Amino acid sequence: MASIKPSVPKGTRDFSPAEMAKRNFIFDTIKGVFRKYGYQQIETPSMENLSTLTGKYGDEGDKLIFKILNSGDFLAKADEQALAARNSNQATASISEKALRYDLTVPFARYVVQHQNEITFPFKRFQVQPVWRADRPQKGRYREFYQCDADVVGSASLLNEAEFIMIYDEALSLLGLKDFSIKINNRKILSGIAQVIDKNDSIIDMTVAIDKLDKIGFDGVVKELLERGFTQADIDHIKPIILLEGTNDEKLASLRAALKNSEIGLKGCEEIETVFNYVSACKPLTAKLELDITLARGLNYYTGAIFEVKTNEVAMGSIGGGGRYDDLTGMFGLKGLTGAGISFGADRIYDVLEELNLFPQSAEQSTQVLICCFDEQGEKYGLPLLQNLRGQNINAELYPAGAKIKKQMEYANNKQIPYTVLIGSDEMQSGLLTFKNMESGEQEKLSADDILSKLSK
Predict the structure, then answer these.
(1) pLDDT for 161-182, tens place per residue?
(2) Where can this protein be found (predicted)?
(3) How far is it, in rounded angstroms, from Cα 230 to Cα 202?
């Protein structure tokens, strides 16, 4: 029988030790900031009941859910009529009760409802786990990928929005980014714009067109609005709003003038101003905070603030985003629980750090020192030192006796181990071990205690 060539499913990938070290650097940095702001980690199962996920992502999203066949003889309880009629939707319901999670948001909503009596509200949680989508794999789009989310539910305070800005600012600064923008908008402002031109029913059409301003320019937006049933008078009315310029304060002043007849629009302006006031009191480190009324992501579920984060150092789509939603848990029967959340695009952040060469060398080093022995006596002599090093939380290895020193040195170089300790008969007699800096090639004779103190610094 011919051997099967090993492979992974399309749209998935392996991560090498070096890649995992870099990924963990990103995740550990972000998790540390989440914890600092009072967010607690939860995890939910890789699989959910299919009924939990279905109908939450629209028809297109439902098609991308990976279903799991029932255990055992899954055809035993299959819908015979649906199978005969080749009705896959109806047949699936009878042979699949579970599915892989499509995102972290719906499982989070399910978690909140299921555990509402144990949770302390406002509930601030973060989650870093893989999700699965039966999408067509292409560059930068995978069928299995990690999401890195933080949400707070049970609090309408705009301090939460301000803290999300501070979380983005701190985490991305710690990762080494020096030039990035956090864009903010508010769904209520977009509703106000639609209201002042009496196009409440066409808010989605309007915002989808405005959202493309960066890509197709103002003339392209006008063309698209006219095709979607807007009049030239409508466009003349909203042109100064779409082409807002100036500082955030100047933009807000212009918006207030343009939306003076819209109560909801003015409410949106007030909310944005409140967030800006909170942020200025907190003094962000690096981010450029920018009011951008063309930002319209997630309009189907965001009801207040909308965020998007972009790096200005490399050409890349957004590396984070989120917003305020008013009824996340309503889908599971718990009404009126407002929330807000953000997500970090970990895969894109990885690509940005790689391109800018921002991963610290320490992110790739797993072992700090390798003990190299000429023979079994050296191995026996080196074991107490090995344990002492590990006892001081120094990552250390001892290369098993029997290999030539050249091979042991190659091992250290290939693993990017910065230091080696050589133990031969001279070293054992004198008690002074050869300590080598693998980068500079510099060697010195040191006692075991000196080596410990040198590596502990």
Answers:
(1) 999 999 999 999 999 999 999 9
(2) Cytoplasm
(3) 9
The number of residues in the chain equals 457
User: What SS3 class is residue 246?
Assistant: coil
Contact 151, 125 (CB under 8 A): yes
Listed in sequence order, the residues at least 6 apart from 300 whose beta carbon sits closer than 8 Å to its beta carbon are 58, 204
- With b for 16 or more beta-carbon neighbours within 10 A and e for fewer, the 327-337 pattern comes to ebbeebebeeb
CB 159 within 8 A of CB 278: yes
- The residue type at 223: K
- CA angle, residues 274, 154, 38, in degrees to nearest 5: 80
For the cut 80, the answer to whether the pLDDT of residue 109 exceeds it is yes
Q: What are 358-374's pLDDT values in tens digits?
A: 999 877 778 999 999 99
Give per-residue pLDDT as tens, 385-429: 999 999 999 999 999 999 999 999 999 999 999 999 999 999 999
Separation between Cα atoms, residue 93 and residue 80, nearest integer Å: 12
Return the bridge partners of 146, or none: 130
C-alpha pair distances (Å), 191 with each of 245, 251, 297, 322: 20, 17, 14, 18
Q: Give the three-class secondary structure for 255.
A: helix
Q: What is the pTM of this model?
A: 0.90
Which DSSP letter does residue 368 get?
S
Helix segments in 259-395, DSSP class H = 263-282, 346-355, 361-364, 376-391
SS3 call for 195: helix
Q: Is the pLDDT of residue 284 over 80?
A: no
Contact 147, 343 (CB under 8 A): yes
* Crossing angle of helices 263-282 and 187-196, rounded to 10°: 150
Give the three-class secondary structure for 31: helix
Residue-level pLDDT at 74: 80
Q: Other C-beta atoms within 10 Å of 102: how many?
A: 22
Assign 143 a pLDDT band (cuts: 50, 70, 90): very high
